[in-house]
């Protein structure tokens, strides 16, 4: 059973970023560089509340469906001024689209 994605459903804009490390005047400098700017469909999976050492933190998991590009779990998703770790990449049967499972720890 093939998943059908309507291009009109890809309403969100995400950036796929990678972390680059440069040596400038003997000092190491890290920066995020955008590889791709993609249209995507967003789906909220879960929000889990954690109480850790008397501090509250929440873990937000999202899924984005977007066109297939050269994306790996070493990359990051930048969405609405927040950066997310890519935890899993699922390629659909038609290989035209992928689903990114991402996690933001606040």
Keywords:
six-stranded antiparallel β-barrel; 6 strands; mainly beta; 106 residues
The chain-level structural class is mainly beta
Biggest beta sheet attributes: 6 strands, antiparallel, barrel
Count of helical stretches: 0
| Spatial strand arrangement across the major sheet | 1-2-3-6-5-4
Query: What fraction of the residues are assigned to beta strands by DSSP?
Result: over 45%
Order of helices and strands: EEEEEE
Question: Which geometry do the CA atoms define?
Answer: globular
Pick out the low-confidence regions: 50-54
Distance between the termini: 37 Å
Q: What level of helicity do the residues show?
A: under 10%
Average pLDDT rating: 86
Compute the number of strand runs: 6
State the assembly state of the protein chains: single chain
Question: Taking Cα atoms only, what radius of gyration do you get, to the nearest Å?
Answer: 16 Å
Describe the structure.
- By secondary structure, the protein is an all-beta fold.
- The chain starts with 11 loop residues before the first strand and ends with a strand.
- The radius of gyration is 16 Å and the shape is globular.
- It is 0% helix and 71% strand.
- It has no helices and six strands.
- It has strands at 12-24, 27-52, 55-67, 76-79, 82-91, 97-105.
- A hairpin with a 2-residue loop joins strand 1 and strand 2.
- A six-stranded antiparallel barrel has the order 1-2-3-6-5-4.
């Amino acid at each position: 059973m093939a998943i059908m994605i309507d291009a009109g459903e890809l309403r969100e804009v995400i950036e796929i970023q990678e972390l680059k490390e440069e040596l400038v005047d003997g000092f190491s400098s890290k920066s995020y560089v955008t590889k791709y700017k993609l249209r995507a469909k967003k789906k909220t999976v879960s929000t889990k509340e954690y109480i850790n050492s008397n501090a509250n933190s929440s873990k937000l998991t999202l899924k984005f469906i977007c066109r297939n590009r050269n994306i790996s779990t070493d990359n990051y998703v930048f969405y609405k001024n927040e950066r997310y770790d890519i935890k899993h990449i699922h390629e659909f049967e038609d290989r035209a689209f992928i689903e990114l499972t991402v996690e933001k720890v606040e």
